[in-house]
Amino acid sequence: AQKVTQAQTEISVVEKEDVTLDCVYETRDTTYYLFWYKQPPSGELVFLIRRNSFDEQNEISGRYSWNFQKSTSSFNFTITASQVVDSAVYFCALIDGTYKYIFGTGTRLKVLA
Amino acid sequence: SQTIHQWPATLVQPVGSPLSLECTVEGTSNPNLYWYRQAAGRGLQLLFYSVGIGQISSEVPQNLSASRPQDRQFILSSKKLLLSDSGFYLCAWSVPPTGARDGYTFGSGTRLTVV
To answer: Which end of chain B is more exposed for a tag (fewer CB within 10 A), N or C?
Structure first.
């Protein structure tokens, strides 16, 4: 069965610290897609990144970076030099052959000034 | 550009009352449409999805129903609300047939409190 686990319910860091949000997934499909979404206090989910199962190259976008490791079924998200505006709930999600999202339960990140 | 509108933003309803939440998409044709619910402290649960007018698939048996009377309109309804229907409801769209792989675009959500 497909499953996405975000074991960290809530993380608090002080501004400028680096923080990593963990995501572990389960799927039997060999072709699948992984996503990260950000949900700021306003509630709307904002798309951050998509990776497909055949591309394990890590990606960096500004202060954001993603580490995809098929060997451990993980797709972790790191924010470097965190800022207060990064405070949000972050969701990891999986799509496999069913083309339906399976979301994790989310990790609430609090960045303190 | 494509936009998605969802309303109302917040809603407080008594138990047993009806519900109607509306979602409309602009700037695209024949989108796949989705209703998700986010209960407090929990992840996002897919409630319904639609690949075309009048075509509704239900993921979870429950007190809710959905309809798609027009190509870019998706409505979530209930005849009698339960306390357990409280939550944050999100509408989303993607480009068919496999546009979900490119990511969803979500609406701003409706926070429903059943009292």
So the answer is: N
Rounded mean pLDDT of B37-61? Answer: 85
Contact A23, A94 (CB under 8 A): no
Low-confidence ranges of chain A (pLDDT < 50): none
Assess A101–B contact: CB distance below 8 Å, yes or no. yes
CA distance A64 to A79: 5
Rounded to whole angstroms, the Cα distance separating B59 from B69 reads 19
Residue in B43, B88, B105 closest to A103 by CB: B43
3-state secondary structure string across B59-90: CCCCCCEEEEEECCEEEEEECCCCHHHCEEEE
Contacts of residue A96, Cβ cutoff 8 Å, sequence gap at least 6: A2, A27, A28, A29, A31, A32, A33, A102
Q: State the smallest CA–CA distance between residue B72 and chain A in angstroms.
A: 19
According to the model, what pLDDT value does residue A95 have?
Answer: 87
Q: Do B105 and A104 touch (CB under 8 A)?
A: no
pLDDT of A99 reads: 66
Alpha helices in B1-115 (DSSP H): none
Say whether pLDDT at B1 is over 70.
Answer: yes
- A64–B contact, CB cutoff 8 A: no
The whole-chain average pLDDT of chain B stands at: 89
Which residues of chain A does B43 touch, with a Cβ-Cβ cutoff of 8 Å? Answer: 91, 103-106
Q: Is it the case that residue B61 has pLDDT exceeding 90?
A: no
If you measure CA to CA, which chain A residue comes closest to B49? A100
Q: Tell me whether the omega of the peptide bond preceding residue B97 falls within 30 degrees of 0, making it cis.
A: yes
